[in-house]
Design goal:
The protein has one domain (2-105). The protein has four helices and no strands. It has helices at 2-29, 34-52, 59-82, 88-105. Helix 1 (2-29) packs across helix 3 (59-82). The longest helix is centred in the first third of the chain and has 28 residues, at 2-29.
Length: 109
C-alpha cells in the first residue's frame, strides 16, 4: 500500500509540475492569456505541496526518485498533449529512470 501511495503522489506531483509549467509556457511562448500564467503558478505551487506529502522521510531521496518519474511523465505529456513521438532512446532512457526509482523507493528501510 505504501508503494502505491508513493507512486500516486509522484504522478500527481509530476502532473502539477508539468501542467503548471505548460500553462506558463503557453502564456509566454504561445500568446495565451495572462490567466494561464497565474493558474500555472498556482499549479506549480500545488506541486510543492504534493511532493511534501510523500511518506518518504528523506528530502533528497524524494526529489531524486521524483526526477525519474518526471522524465517519464514529461515524455508521456509530450505524446498526449503535443503529439511528440519519442524514439527508442527516449523510451529506453525513461525506462532506465523508472527502474532507478524502483531501486531507490521499493526496499524497506
Amino acid at each position: 500500500m505504501r508503494f502505491l501511495i508513493i507512486g500516486v503522489l509522484f504522478v500527481v506531483a509530476g502532473l502539477c509540475e508539468i501542467g503548471g509549467g505548460y500553462l506558463v509556457w503557453g502564456w509566454m511562448r504561445d500568446t495565451k492569456p495572462l490567466a494561464w500564467a497565474f493558474i500555472g503558478g498556482l499549479v506549480l505551487a500545488a506541486y510543492g505541496v504534493v511532493a511534501a506529502l510523500q511518506p518518504i522521510s528523506e528530502f533528497g531521496r524524494v526529489y531524486a526518485a521524483y526526477g525519474g518519474i518526471f522524465i517519464a511523465l514529461a515524455l508521456l505529456w509530450g505524446v498526449v498533449v503535443d503529439g511528440f513521438e519519442p524514439d527508442r532512446y527516449d523510451l529506453l532512457g525513461a525506462f532506465i529512470c523508472i527502474v532507478g526509482v524502483v531501486v531507490m523507493v521499493a526496499p524497506p528501510r
